[in-house]
Amino acid sequence: MLRLMSHFLPPLNWFRAFECAARHLSFTGAAREMNVTQSAVSQHVRLLEKRLGTPLFVRKARGIALTEPGRRLIPYVSGAMADLAMATDMFEPHRGDNVLEVACSSSFARLWLCKHIGDFLGQQPTLDVRIVSAIWPDDYSKIESDVQVRYGSAELVGDGAERLLVDTMIPVCHPDLASGLDQKNGFSDTSLIHTMGTANTWARWSKIMGVEIPSSASLSVDSDELALELAENGLGVALCGRFLCHDIIAAGRLCMPVDSAMPSDENYYMAVREDRRAGDAAAEFCAWLSTAVP
């Protein structure tokens, strides 16, 4: 696949010359930004035009103008250049004091953090916060983050991690589905949505609650986020922590078909990476998080 892409894609320098020239509407301005000669920019653009089989600029006595194909192409090239700049920025060797990187699960990020972090950002108007997601415990050792919000048992998350909350596990489903469920028969008339890799299973819930459940699962996913999305779409009953479900239940998109909660064997913990010095931003974020989480 990579060989095919390299065969069909024009060289990156051609696209860069086109993007610079389009922004400046000048080969001279593009050459100055790229620190090359004007003839080099012009040559790269001509080669790209030849490769694509269409003119991208109209050459005028005073400057240049984009053609219709050029106007259609420029958003894609500009977006790709911006994505490349953002990607390489993640690997910058020197991080300033105003940068804070937070690693957490995608479920925690999307279902809670993204909705509430605005309060923290309002207190830190000059801070550059970067949120990176992880799914499995081993992922955190590979992420160069300042603060980590880990999910699991106390033994799994390791020493030095502070527990954020004591959660409970509850069954949730779409309100339209709840009215037709036979809870006494363990939801045997609908699908149970299982989240893989967690100790809080339907089997454990069944044992604690004394309710029989179907022996086979028809839906399994690797995150609470996906489990809740399936439940919102009316595809079954999910077992999830009350913490992540709270806002969705409050909005009326999910409900508890039966009032039966069990204590969770796993919870959210926060920790500062041992190989990083806990700066002011990391300490302030941890202080905010410990008070913001209900």
| Helix amount | 40-55%
Number of domains: 3
Q: Work out the number of β strands.
A: 12
> What CATH first level of the largest domain would be assigned?
Alpha Beta
Provide a count of the helices: 12
Shape assignment:
elongated
Kindly, what is the distance between the CA atoms of the first and last residues, rounded to a whole number of angstroms?
48 Å
Uncertain stretches: 1-6
β-strand percent reads 15-25%
CATH H-level name of the largest domain... which superfamily?
Periplasmic binding protein-like II
Specify the biggest β-sheet: 5 strands, mixed
Could you characterize what this model shows?
The chain is an alpha/beta fold and 294 residues long. It folds into three domains: 2-89, Winged helix-like DNA-binding domain superfamily/Winged helix DNA-binding domain (Arc Repressor Mutant, subunit A); 100-164 and 267-292, D-Maltodextrin-Binding Protein, domain 2; 168-263, Periplasmic binding protein-like II (D-Maltodextrin-Binding Protein, domain 2, 3-Layer(aba) Sandwich), CATH 3.40.190. It has twelve helices and twelve strands. It has helices spanning 2-8, 12-24, 27-34, 38-52, 68-89, 106-123, 154-157, 175-178, 202-209, 224-232, 242-250, 280-292, and strands spanning 57-60, 63-66, 99-105, 128-134, 147-152, 162-163, 168-172, 192-195, 219-221, 237-241, 262-263, 267-272. Helix 6 (106-123) links the parallel strand 3 (99-105) and strand 4. Helix 2 (12-24) packs across helix 4 (38-52). It is elongated, with a radius of gyration of 26 Å.
